[in-house]
Design brief:
- The protein has 223 residues and is mostly beta strands.
- It has a single domain, classed as Exo-inulinase, domain 1 (Jelly Rolls).
- The chain is built from 3 helices and 17 strands.
- The strands form 3 sheets. It has an 8-stranded antiparallel sheet with strand order 1-4-7-16-9-10-11-12. A 7-stranded antiparallel sheet has the order 5-6-17-8-13-14-15. The chain has a two-stranded antiparallel ribbon with strand order 2-3.
Length: 223
């Protein structure tokens, strides 16, 4: 396993903006992902990161590689609240695993919500119900959770996004409960109880084995 760590600088000038509402605890953190990708702040494990800009979005691209990879934001300690991000994978089986890590510690210890876009519109119903997944690494892997708790920690995505296009993800962490919403859905695609005992940790952009991914418009609202 490639454990190469690329630390792309310290917190100075990382491009994090904070919007304060009526309540101070409901601030919104909106990182400039393109600026971070150009070398100003991310802590990256087992991936290369580049910025991109196309007709639809401007953001960050994580490269493909063996094993999982994560790019953590600097100086963001997240316990409870909302993480929102636009994500783009691809409709290639076993080559697109894209999502977010939270309560992270390092390259191997974190909770994550991730998607398998190649399962979004699969003709096989058994694959469609494996479109969004919760894991708590390193103890609770997807293999263990699927074997011991089938249908609990992975579900279908509603509404079904374009597997090659952008989709919006909203992850709500409230104590032990994690809820995952896609696009404008008011009904969660996945609701689980957290399995780790870590009360807080880092937030990162996550990709799985053999996978890269594109990310844009990240917002973090701690509560």
């Amino acid at each position: 396993m490639n454990k190469r760590v690329a630390v792309l600088s310290m917190f100075a000038a990382v491009g994090l903006s904070t919007a304060s509402g009526a309540a101070a605890q409901q601030r919104t953190i909106e990182p400039d992902l393109a600026r971070l990708a150009e070398g100003q702040g991310l802590q990256v494990f087992n991936r290369h990161v580049t910025s991109f800009s196309d007709s639809a979005k401007k953001g960050i691209r994580l490269s493909e590689n063996l094993d999982a990879g994560v790019a953590y934001l600097p100086a963001v300690e997240f316990a409870n609240g909302v993480i929102e991000v636009d994500v783009r994978g691809k409709d290639v089986q076993q080559q697109s695993f894209v999502g977010v890590a939270f309560h992270g510690v390092d390259s191997t210890t974190y909770d994550a919500i991730y998607f398998r876009p190649f399962n979004f519109r699969a003709s096989d119903p058994a694959r469609r119900v494996r479109a969004v997944q919760y894991v708590s690494q390193p103890t609770y892997t997807w293999q263990q959770l699927r074997a011991e708790h089938p249908g609990v920690y992975e579900q279908a995505v509603k509404p079904v996004p374009d597997p090659n296009g952008w989709f919006h993800v909203r992850v709500v962490v409230a104590g032990s409960k994690v809820s995952v919403f896609v696009n404008d859905a008011t009904e969660a695609s996945l609701v689980v109880n957290r399995l780790s005992e870590r009360p807080m940790g880092l937030v990162g952009l996550w990709v799985g084995n053999n996978s890269g991914g594109d990310f844009a418009n990240l917002k973090i609202r701690p509560e």
